[in-house]
Specification:
ESS family glutamate:Na+ symporter, 451 residues, mainly alpha, 0% strand, transmembrane
């Protein structure tokens, strides 16, 4: 059957319907409220069950898996546009949190590759890149899983898309469940400074519906709707950057056949170019950061629900055992990092800041924000602000780890081993820096905090 524009409308409408059902269930079902389950995740599971992978009731088009690749380009294109530069004041005392955030990022990549090449490949015939699944899904989330999965599709490893998105889904769910368990443990041990019980979480956070008296504007109107609607204005900027990334990727590949730069990387680059032009021409005052974040958030929700709904369960079944081992050890790694590193790398509010990083390292920043809000409802610990700063600082490292390992591992031979050793070396160097500059003081609490 020929794919038409009406098929796009049909797919998006079904995804939107599933998202609304997910929000309805979150608002009504106590279990989902206690689990802090995002509506996109609930809707994604409904789409998986009712879609082509299981019951095949919903009339999705054959292009459902392709939407994620476009949406991730929009997400990355929005990232720098309208953002403020980091100030010197914000950089003060950020070292410990930078190590928390960046250290677990590199360690997940290194640990996953060591586990896969050193152990799992002895029992199962796995692709050399299987070890990347841990960090791709846990730290990276669905966006990274889609981006890297698209890279591997071009390299002939189609299964990575489904495996990566499974990792992201498990990471997100497990991050919330284990995070809540850690919070319950922490409150009993009196590690928390601002709440004595997670039951104190506001109803609007639990249900996902904000009462009228607490509702806030989603953004500012920066251009007159007599000439152009403000949302269309901002969306146009994002789409230009995303499509420029697609054109640049295609152009580069046409000139250098062996070089396939992912669209999302170049979309991010053009986002920075647009932001530079806006600042130089002093037109950045007409771009509202909140509106760009809403566009990015909308694209992310659609990305998550479409990626889960289009999962190939056969691929997951074929790799169930090595996936299960990877996921369990991945959670153990993140919990260990929370207890051994987060505890000794913050000068104040270590638990509140550490649980933010724990959630962030199991999927998305939103998970960290949810867990942080449970123990720090008034945002006194600066966990959210410092996460934003460190994410900006380590973004080049994160992008490099998303792009370079697949390229090098794809060369075959001993390159997978060399890539793994390079990751291990990077983690060791960063840890040495953390010890030298006392970002991390193992066994010794920072500030006036008590064990």
């Amino acid at each position: 059957m020929q794919f038409t524009l009406w098929d796009i409308l049909q797919d998006i409408a079904i995804l939107g319907f599933l998202m609304i059902i997910g929000q309805f269930l979150r608002a009504k079902v106590k279990l989902l409220q206690n689990l802090l389950m995002p509506a996109s995740l609930i809707g994604g599971f409904l789409g998986l069950i009712l879609g082509p992978s299981v019951l095949n009731i919903l009339p999705f088009s054959s292009q459902l898996p392709a939407y994620a690749g476009i949406l991730i380009a929009i997400v990355f294109a929005c990232t720098p546009i309208g953002d403020d530069p980091i100030t010197k004041e914000e950089m003060k005392g950020i070292g410990g949190f930078f190590y928390q955030n960046t250290g677990i990022l590199i360690l997940q990549y290194a640990f996953g590759m060591v586990l896969s090449l050193g152990l799992l490949n002895k029992f199962w015939d796995l692709h050399d890149s299987f070890g990347l699944i841990l960090a791709t899904g846990y730290y990276g989330g669905h966006g990274t899983a889609v981006a890297v999965g698209d890279m591997f599709k071009d390299m002939g490893y189609n299964e990575f898309f489904d495996l990566g998105n499974t990792s992201a889904t498990i990471g997100l769910i497990g991050g919330i469940l284990i995070g809540i368990a850690i919070i319950n443990w922490g409150t009993r041990k009196k590690y928390t400074n601002y709440v004595s019980s997670p039951e104190e979480l506001p109803e609007e956070i639990k249900k996902g519906i904000i009462p009228k008296e607490k509702q806030k504007p989603a953004g500012k109107i920066t251009v007159s709707n007599m000439t152009i609607d403000p949302l269309v204005f901002h969306l146009s900027i994002a789409l230009i950057a995303a499509y420029a990334g697609k054109l640049a990727s295609k152009f580069i590949n046409s000139k250098i056949s062996w070089l396939q730069i992912p669209v999302f990387v170049l979309a991010l680059a053009f986002g920075y170019v647009i932001q530079f032009i806006l600042r130089k021409t002093k037109t950045d005052q007409y771009v509202d950061r909140q509106t760009m974040q809403r566009i990015s958030g909308s694209a992310t929700d659609l990305l998550v629900i479409s990626a889960i709904a289009s999962l190939n369960l056969g691929v997951i079944k074929d790799n169930f055992a090595p996936l299960a081992i990877t996921f369990v050890l991945g959670f153990a790694l993140n919990v260990g990092w929370f207890l051994l590193v987060s505890k000794y790398s913050s000068s104040k509010d270590w638990f509140e800041r550490g649980i933010m990083n724990f959630g962030r390292s199991n999927g998305v920043v939103a998970t960290g924000v949810l867990l942080n809000r449970v123990v720090d409802p008034d945002q006194k610990s600066r966990g959210l602000e410092d996460t934003g700063i460190t994410d900006l600082m380590n973004r080049p490292i994160a992008i490099a780890l998303q792009v370079l390992p697949p390229l090098f591992i794809g060369m075959g031979g001993r390159y997978p081993l060399y890539t793994t050793l390079a990751m291990c070396a990077a983690f060791i160097v960063l840890t040495i820096l953390a010890l030298v500059f006392k970002w991390w003081t193992p066994g010794k609490m920072q500030g006036n905090q008590k064990k």
